[in-house]
Backbone:
């Protein structure tokens, strides 16, 4: 039986953590993820969990301590944002290559500079090649549900990779929304116990982790890791299926919203999808054939499936809430465009970078995008492919 | 139980031969001695900072370590050890393991004095039950002898070479042992590879079996960086101690004990002249560098004697 409640995304994630009762939580505060370890500290103080809660001196050390704890044979978790995630960067690669199924909650926030505490994906997108699985949420419910699925995906025998559970800083992390929680017992039963095969503290068989891999061996390790990321696709769907069976809420690699006969579509992530869905509804009411795809899983990237979903669309706008400085569009665009490259008939595709550092994104913006896509579909001319939307000076705006 | 070299050397090796460290390098000797200080019935997890030691002792698919071992990165051996210790505590509490484990961290001076300093300081402050061994070879040796904050004044390093306008490194080294004492650690010691290893063994054992975060700083010559023939490693260690450049002492709960006092304190040049890195100090016109080095050592020695009395 689900429990109806209302809470922020941070509290929802902290609640999931409490219900899972991990072995080790190594924390370091950073806005807007700080509340997660704060809630958790109170659970520790009140005896609601028996986790070893370590307050380390930096995010580099929080991920390093997670690496030590997970390698030693425990479930280890942490949470961070923005500069904190960047500071972890080196250790994220270490965690993934050592095949340690650590779960990291990220309240996504812009990177400096200028310094900014609001939402975009410049932090998590900068770590898209770290080897972490990345799962994004539209709202607090999805943040909670994704978190409940994370450990099982990460710990799947042919995966064994760390996972980032991403929520939108402030928009999701701090806004209070209704939520359906599951009971502590049901969550524990769903997530299960962690029983790793090999670990440092295995008394009968010591383990060595983190070798020097010369060129005669390095490549095999990387290929094995790449295979694990491919395997993660199967694990993500299997866990989602069991989640739906157990709790009734359905998840996949992405959500298709009114895509059945869509001629124009946007590909988007996170909370902005909620705003864009409202625009899709209004345009559908006017008889426009528009739809939306909300990408939930960015790593592994569901390229084939996404191409399949877009193959009959005439014009697509990919919405990037991070600026990749490639001079060729943002990371979601690069992935989506390359996923479609071998389709027999491809949609025309543009990239729209928006919402940086918490800049508002509205229903009106979305409608402008769809009006533009309609023109592209009619004329077959894309015009400028890499556009910034929502700038202070309207003269800079293409749309 | 009194220290007995023969008994100690008859213990099963826990750091195996066949590693790829240079002949005349102190690091392998430190590891063997460190592991002898773990009681045979106890298990250990070694957390190693990126270093010569790491790339030489765990080159896939071979490891020189009989105990569990983890290398993560250059600057995070202490934070990694903190995570292992947390895991050990929680698994013990939940009845998931019976054996006693000793959590050891080891890094060179680069991974300890410099890039790993924050992680070390944090772990010391939080009070994890682990022992950090620094094998201090006084420069970044893995990358080819660049100066570190442990490099002594006047030593030539590849980033502080001697030349017409330079007499080597300009600054005195950081006194990390004192900094660890200032963290309130229950046991901090300074040792090196000398004599029958009694000094090393007793300190390492005491450190490992004192509850809380403990620290052992080991002077560990490097034949490549210090430029000496491999076979004179013991002589260099001995001269470091006899000149009081590297005094042997320990600090238990803030109490200082000198564990060895040279009968005749030798001049610093007895240490310096054995090594190519100080060669320029002996050139005409550079005599003042040896005088300055002597003054610094005398001052530090007097300060230490005061603390020990």
Residues:
């Amino acid at each position: 039986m689900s429990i109806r409640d209302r809470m922020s995304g941070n509290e929802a994630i902290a609640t999931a953590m409490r219900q899972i009762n991990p072995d080790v939580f190594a924390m370091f505060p950073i806005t807007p993820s700080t509340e997660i370890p704060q809630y958790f500290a109170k659970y520790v103080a009140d005896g609601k969990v028996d986790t070893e809660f370590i307050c380390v001196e930096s995010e580099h050390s929080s991920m390093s301590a997670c690496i030590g704890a997970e390698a030693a044979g425990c479930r280890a978790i942490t949470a961070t944002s923005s500069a904190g995630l960047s500071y972890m960067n080196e250790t994220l690669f270490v965690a993934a290559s050592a095949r340690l199924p650590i779960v990291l909650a990220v309240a996504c926030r812009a990177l400096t500079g200028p310094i900014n505490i609001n939402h975009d994906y410049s932090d998590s997108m900068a770590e898209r090649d770290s080897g972490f699985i990345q799962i994004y949420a539209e709202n607090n419910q999805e943040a909670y549900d994704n978190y409940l699925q994370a450990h099982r995906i990460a710990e799947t025998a042919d995966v064994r990779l760390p996972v980032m559970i991403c929520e939108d800083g402030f928009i999701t992390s701090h806004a209070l929304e209704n939520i359906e929680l599951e009971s502590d017992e049901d969550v524990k039963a769903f997530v299960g116990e962690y029983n790793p095969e090999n670990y440092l503290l295995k008394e009968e068989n010591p383990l060595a982790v983190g070798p020097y891999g010369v060129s005669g061996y390095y490549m095999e390790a990387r290929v094995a890791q790449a295979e694990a990321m491919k395997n993660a696709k199967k694990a993500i769907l299997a866990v989602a299926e069991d989640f739906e069976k157990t709790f009734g809420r359905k998840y996949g690699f992405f959500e298709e919203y009114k895509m059945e006969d869509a001629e124009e579509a946007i590909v988007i992530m996170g909370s902005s999808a909620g705003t864009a869905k409202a625009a899709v509804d209004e345009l559908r009411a006017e008889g426009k054939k528009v739809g939306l795809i909300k990408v939930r899983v960015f790593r592994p990237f569901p390229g084939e499936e996404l191409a399949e979903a877009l193959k009959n669309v005439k014009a697509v706008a990919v919405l990037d809430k991070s600026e990749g400085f490639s001079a060729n569009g943002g990371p979601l665009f690069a992935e989506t465009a390359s996923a479609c490259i071998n389709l027999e008939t491809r949609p025309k595709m543009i990239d729209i970078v928006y919402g940086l550092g918490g800049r508002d994104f509205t229903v009106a913006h979305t409608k402008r995008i769809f009006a533009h896509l309609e023109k592209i579909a009619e004329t077959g001319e894309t015009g400028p492919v890499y556009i910034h939307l929502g700038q202070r000076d309207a003269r800079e705006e293409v749309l | 139980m009194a220290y007995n070299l023969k008994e100690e050397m008859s213990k099963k090796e826990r750091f195996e031969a066949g590693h790829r460290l240079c002949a005349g390098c102190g690091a392998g000797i430190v590891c063997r001695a460190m592991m002898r200080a773990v009681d045979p019935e106890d298990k250990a997890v070694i957390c190693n900072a990126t270093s010569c030691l790491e790339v030489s002792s765990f080159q896939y698919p071979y490891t020189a370590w009989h105990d569990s071992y983890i290398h993560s990165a250059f600057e995070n051996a202490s934070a990694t050890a903190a995570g292992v210790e947390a895991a050990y505590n929680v698994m013990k509490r939940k009845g998931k393991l019976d054996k006693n484990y000793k959590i050891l961290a080891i890094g060179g001076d680069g991974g300890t004095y410099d890039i790993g300093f924050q992680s070390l300081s944090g772990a010391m402050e939080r009070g994890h039950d682990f022992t950090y061994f620094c094998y201090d070879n006084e420069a970044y040796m893995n990358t080819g002898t660049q100066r570190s904050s442990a490099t002594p004044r006047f030593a030539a390093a590849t980033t502080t070479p001697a030349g017409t306008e330079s007499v080597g490194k300009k600054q005195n080294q950081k006194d990390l042992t004192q900094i660890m004492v200032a963290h309130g650690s229950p046991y901090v010691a300074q040792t090196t590879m000398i004599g029958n290893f009694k000094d090393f063994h007793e300190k390492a054992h005491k450190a490992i079996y004192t509850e809380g975060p403990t620290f052992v700083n080991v002077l560990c010559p490097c034949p490549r960086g210090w430029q000496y023939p491999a076979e004179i490693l013991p002589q260099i260690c001995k001269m470091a101690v006899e000149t009081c450049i590297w005094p042997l002492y320990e600090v238990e709960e803030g109490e200082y004990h000198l564990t060895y006092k040279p009968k005749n304190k030798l001049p610093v040049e007895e240490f310096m002249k054995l090594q190519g890195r100080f060669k320029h100090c002996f050139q005409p016109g550079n005599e003042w560098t040896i005088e300055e080095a002597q003054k610094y050592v005398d001052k530090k020695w007097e300060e230490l004697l005061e603390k020990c009395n």
